[in-house]
Amino acid sequence: MHGEPVCVGDSEAIGIHDLAHPQYGDAPVLEPGDVPVFWACGVTPQAAVMASKPEFAITHAPGHMLVTDVRDVTYMV
Questions:
Q1: Any idea what the CATH number is for the domain that residue 8 is in?
Q2: Span 29-65, pLDDT tens digits
Q3: Domain of residue 4, residue span
């Protein structure tokens, strides 16, 4: 679960200056009338962990999120 988006619309508001050239992954294909929506992503903390080189860290791989037996409804607000 990612929760609510961190930004809707203006990517400049969160420091993304060019949607056609993302730091990670493929560029989005935007159709006329589309509004970009941005969620927090696990790649950002992974980059921080890789840069800081801690002795030990647990994270996930893109497309392989943490799996538990706790149901989503437990986290609903």
A1: 3.30.2040.10
A2: 999 999 999 887 777 777 788 889 999 887 776 666 6
A3: 1-77
